Amino acid sequence: MLGKKKRGMAGVVLALVGLAGVAGALDVADVTREWTPAGKKIAAERAKLPAHDEMVFIPAGWFIMGSDKKVDRNAYQPEFPQRKVYLDAYEIDKYEVTTVQYLKFVLTTDRPPLLDWQYDGGNFQETMANHPVMHVSWHDADAYCKWAGKRLPTSAEWEKAARGDDGRIYPWGNQPAGLSRANFGRTGLSGPVRDRPERLLLYPPIISVDKYENAVSPYGVYQMAGNVAEWTADWYDANYYKSAPDRNPKGPEKGTQKAFRGGGWIDSTPSVRPAQRNGADPNTKMNWLGFRCARDLRDVTDTQNQPTTIPQATGLR
């Protein structure tokens, strides 16, 4: 339910999305939703639906981070130079955080419904229960992970979980992305979202987080390419790789944008490569942007994977 001050805006939104060719744009940050008493009761029951809470262990060791233009012709400057990076062991969510998981957080912390939760007094449709949550800012994602006893993954952790340690271009190898492996390249009803903010209010062609068993990463992590792009912990700097440490890099100390990875349903084949890096204002809320969480394993060591010299980076051919 829209707040009283925003109901006039709702009429504008409906007109914009209901009539083809209507010009104009809408700042979706001006649109808020509210629970109704009946809606909250429905939400409390819906929060009991099964959630995808599994996490995957990522062992300590070196992996190839970034891209080699000779191997990946779609690589571009922020991915250079490719090099070996060492990460301590950690866990990462097997799946993107779902609407059901996020609903539990919203109810526990007394937050309003998300922008796309517009049914039955502030709820999402039950068919959306296993879809990745969207319309969450970096701050929202960070708060959720902390509430869940986790944290956002660093950009390096995200990339290793997606690519393994051998420098492959996609989670499944070097074969180009296709619609049998990833949910991407779909404009659908949402059209050019980045240019038409009012289209953010339409539900996009996203899918359940547990689809594409044939396209999991070497560690068994799902949908690290497509569906929704994912926030990471790092500040974003296109030139960061030139000076980043080779052990447990955590991104620049400050910045104006937060890094996100993986590409979403709206993106093209080059944009869903896990090595591609992008950034956005941490207050950004989009229907192609979600997240997953990670967790430290401070007691896990892997002395066999701690060489005294850094191996040479070589990609798959």
Kindly describe this structure.
This protein has 317 residues and is α+β, with helices and mostly antiparallel strands. It has five helices and nine strands. The chain has helices at residues 7-18, 37-46, 99-108, 138-147, 155-163; strands spanning 55-58, 61-65, 83-87, 90-93, 229-235, 258-261, 278-280, 289-290, 294-296. Strands 7-6-5-8 form a four-stranded mixed sheet. Helix 2 packs across helix 3. The radius of gyration is 20 Å and the shape is globular.
Layout of helices and strands, plus pairs?
Layout: H1 7-18, H2 37-46, E1 55-58, E2 61-65, E3 83-87, E4 90-93, H3 99-108, H4 138-147, H5 155-163, E5 229-235, E6 258-261, E7 278-280, E8 289-290, E9 294-296
Parallel strand pairs: 5-8
Antiparallel strand pairs: 1-4, 2-3, 4-9, 5-6, 6-7
Tell me the number of strands.
Answer: 9
Number of helices: 5
Instruction: Give the proportion of residues in helices.
Output: 10-25%
Kindly name the structural category: alpha+beta
How far is the first residue's CA from the last residue's CA?
53 Å
Mean pLDDT: 84
Strand content: 5-15%
- Run of helices and strands: HHEEEEHHHEEEEE
Short recap of the structure:
The protein is α+β, with helices and mostly antiparallel strands.
List keywords for this structure.
317 residues, alpha+beta, 9 strands, 16% helix, globular, disordered C terminus
